[in-house]
Amino acid sequence: MRLVILEEYDKASEWAAKYVRNRILEFKPGPEKFFTLGLPTGSTPLGMYKKLIEFHKSGKLSFKYVKTFNMDEYVGLAKDHPESYHNYMWENFFKHIDIDPKNVHIPDGNAEDLDEECRKYEEEITKAGGVELFVGGIGPDGHIAFNEPGSSLVSRTRVKTLAQDTIIANARFFNNDILKVPTMALTVGVGTVMDAREVMVIITGAHKSYALYKAIEEGVSHMWTVSAFQQHPRAIFVCDEDATLELRVKTVKYFNSLMYVHNKLVEDNDESLNEVKRQKLK
To answer: Which residue in 145, 260, 273, 274 has its CB near the most CB atoms, within 10 A?
Structure first.
């Protein structure tokens, strides 16, 4: 497990975007070899998406051979509803890049048979060869996707009733009217995300500092589902300084002591990728 601490939100977002970019380019995707990327919604990943769009528009990154699987979707919202996750993803990311719409996968919260929709979603992930990198964010109560406190840590994609805290937290997207917030969602399970070959969780803001503490310093618990990723063989937590407020000083110092190595790796990757690009232009 790695914990990468950046000074503030924008720097954490840029680091996460560079990591996604480098993983895709190193994978060398093509017609017979797609890179499969799991994606989140919410306010936290917006900075990462903005930077990835910049990489694409500057010619540094293509999504032509990338398949995506989103974490969740509300039940009952039309796909074109301003707050649906279908709309969120197209407005904030997909329409700005060169991804083929047929390679975009988002659960259908209006499916006639929701349980069958969840089963097929798991099937599509399997058909794609599994997820190479699953990027996620968390709620203040430590839930990943919509795996609320108490969710099974081996759960799969399913219909989930949302906790009151989650409804209240999401009310800001519905004119602060909790009566307008859907009470159910389709969500990938903790087990679904754990199956990914790598997981990167972005955690920013003081309001999520206690959740980060639970995720990093305490044991694995189904009451804090993000803590499950302590047991993932390749998990990265990317956060800003505000999110570390509840961590022990020695924990922060330990991971900060590794930042030189982390930064050097990123710099080396950037230079290697530039060299690859120079060779292609010859």
So the answer is: 145
